[in-house]
Specification:
Structural class: alpha/beta
Strand content: 5-15%
Protein name: F-box protein SKP2A
InterPro entries: FBXL15_LRR (IPR057207), Leu-rich_rpt_Cys-con_subtyp (IPR006553), LRR_dom_sf (IPR032675)
Number of domains: 1
Distance between the termini: 40 Å
Number of helices: 5
Number of strands: 5
Helix content: 25-40%
Order of helices and strands: EHEHEHEHEH
CATH superfamily: Ribonuclease Inhibitor
CATH class: Alpha Beta
Strand order of the largest sheet: 1-2-3-4-5
CATH architecture: Alpha-Beta Horseshoe
């Protein structure tokens, strides 16, 4: 598929329960123009592949990580903030390994960020929520 859809911009892989690190990494090599990626409900891959994907998907504007409990970590968010700094919307709902450090990294790196869903992220404190709000209001 990746060999024939080089101009693909929107990819929905939600609930692809058999998606592995290798298959996701391979897909990442084939879509340089991707701006929207939905991998919600995919719980089999780890945060290391997210770091590789962020490096390849630097044009990403919308990312849905809802329920990606193994992949969505503070390290993954730092990579997304570094490589995909034009991110506008990210859904991190119920990603219970995400903490203050990752969210703050996104907030400081992704200056175009307009929507951030952190519902169910139990490690995030109220202080971080206030800092994210203030940094976006005054940026």
């Amino acid at each position: 598929m990746a060999n024939h859809c080089n101009e693909l911009q929107d990819l929905d892989l939600s609930k692809s329960l058999k998606l592995t690190d290798h298959s996701l990494y391979t897909l990442g090599l084939g879509y340089p123009n991707l701006t929207k990626l939905n991998i919600s409900g995919c719980s089999t891959f780890c945060d290391g592949v997210v770091e590789d994907l962020a490096d390849h998907y630097q044009n990403l504007r919308v990312l849905n990580f809802y329920g990606c409990v193994r992949a969505a970590t503070d390290m993954a968010l730092k990579a997304i903030g570094f490589y995909c700094n034009r991110m506008q919307t990210i859904n991190l709902g119920w990603c219970d390994k995400i903490g203050d450090e990752g969210v703050m990294s996104l907030s400081y790196s992704c200056l175009d960020l307009r929507a951030l869903d952190i519902g169910g992220c139990v490690l995030i404190t109220g202080k971080t929520c206030v800092l994210v709000y203030v940094s976006n209001v005054f940026s």
